[in-house]
Amino acid sequence: MISPVRSAGLIALALCGWLWASPALARPAPPGKPGGTLILTLREDPPEGFAIHETATIAGVWPAMPCYSNLVLFDPMEPVERPETIVGELAERWSWQDGYKNLVFFLRKNVRWHDGQPFTSRDVKFTFDVVREAADAPGRLRLNPRKVWYTNIAAIETPDPYTVVFHLKRPQPSFLLLLAADYSPVYPAHVPPAELRMRCVGTGPFRLKEWRRGEFVEYVKNPSYFVPGRPYLDGLRYVVIADRGTRTAALQAGRVDVSFPGEGRKSIVDQVRASVPGLRVSVIGQNVFDNLLLNTKRPPLDQVSVRRALSLAVDRRAFTKAVHQGEGAIGAAMAPPPQGIWGLSERDLAGMAGYGTPEADRAKAKELLASAGFTPATPLRIEILTRAIAIYLDVASFVVGELKRIGVEATLKQVDSAQWFPLLTRREYQAAVNVTGLGLDDPDATFYENYTCGSPRNYTDYCDAQVTALIERQSQELDPGRRRELVREIQRLLERDAARPILSWRLDNFVQAPYVRNLVPHQVEHNWGRMQEVWLDR
């Protein structure tokens, strides 16, 4: 623990402007008209309710984000998220100290939770002590997919009700970006985290009115919201429509105002646009990739050669054409350009498993399987799990067909959303087809969550000392060019080991009614659902 004298010194330095990091100014949004209720599409009930810190799916974040606030947030009016688009939310300003080892936040005053309790620095410390599972944390989460985001925190201090100091074990420039992701809301210290699975107590622009399972989630305007004049809307209503065809029909009939993020297949959206010409469609990145989960602790997938064979079997270009109608990007563990800034290009990927010519890749795959003892007479038989929703089944059906072409007998098992993430977290599967959404386009979020030893969301249990050491190095590297080279090398090693074969990076065709204003889709699908700037022009 840092001494009170040391902490006071840090705050004094910040107040004097030393190493000051001034918060970015949000781009002024066009003025809006108050009133009305926005009707939004929801693919399914939020699996973890409103407990964002326990969820790992857009189905949990999209309907919960309007309830909460973060310390900082990516500007809702900026479609491309970068460090310079971070704006204050519960924090009015902040300051980095000691070469990115200490981060001081100065909080808004007179903010209240939806139940009337005052918001203070105690809530911030409570939230992130619980998420990082500090020894003296006052509570625990049932699921904790992003604990690894915050393992670099040494201590959190609250010198007064409106100041918070995050003391880090080592420099970590991207720490501020982790806090800006929608996966990082501040929870109320006076409400047990378990209660947030059923009800939402936040400081956000909307207050929960009712959640009727299988039907809708409904919010009303928060009259005590800390941003003057916001939100514009009187309310939000998220309508649960599980069937993809029925969701399409609802858009065509005008029963909903916007689609669900990540569900916009080009063929379906073209159909909707043809029947309702006034609809606005945004073709955007998602920071979401289709991938194979190969349990490295389950034989024979503990053998790199077998994992590489399965990776080689899937023709990425044919996959993108068939499953995404050509709207997708081929890449490795980070989103490729132009969707992201850290990913490998197709030129970088040349020669890696799954990125060559289909015939040569399949021949190599059969050779690797034969060396592991799997032949037409003794084929590899595996069970492949996938989530029982349409976008997962699209991917899984293609993969099963590709595996059959190299002699693998794969059977498909569907799992509903309530079971899906617990099964993966407990590693109760052999192989699975997954669609993974990343909270932001930064290597720390991706690598720590999905590839470090022991991470709850490292579903394959991949663990490599060399890769882990490189992940640590890139995280604390202050030179952008050197960090970029380390990130490239990590991606090459992950491809070499078939740690989590990436099939495609998704694009989304997001649909809005022509009268919806200020709902700006981002290139990361998770981070633009606060809804405080949205209004209806009708």
Walk me through the topology.
Blueprint: H1 4-15, E1 20-21, E2 37-42, H2 58-61, E3 72-74, E4 86-88, E5 91-97, E6 102-107, H3 121-131, E7 153-160, E8 163-168, H4 175-180, E9 206-212, E10 216-221, E11 235-240, H5 244-253, H6 266-275, E12 280-294, H7 304-313, H8 316-324, E13 328-329, H9 346-349, H10 358-371, E14 381-387, H11 390-404, E15 409-415, H12 417-425, E16 431-437, H13 443-451, H14 465-476, H15 480-496, E17 502-512, E18 516-517, E19 535-536
Parallel strand pairs: 2-11, 14-15, 14-16
Antiparallel strand pairs: 1-5, 3-4, 5-6, 6-8, 7-8, 9-10, 10-11, 12-16, 12-17, 13-17, 18-19
How would you sum up this structure, described in words?
With 538 residues, this protein is α+β, with helices and mostly antiparallel strands. The protein folds into two domains: 241 residues, Dipeptide-binding Protein, Domain 1 (Dipeptide-binding Protein, domain 1, Alpha-Beta Complex), CATH 3.90.76.10; 223 residues, Dipeptide-binding Protein, domain 3 (Roll). The protein is built from 15 helices and 19 strands. It has a six-stranded mixed beta sheet with strand order 13-17-12-16-14-15. The protein has a five-stranded antiparallel beta sheet with strand order 1-5-6-8-7, sandwiched between helices. A hairpin with a 2-residue loop joins strand 7 and strand 8. Helix 13 runs antiparallel to helix 14.
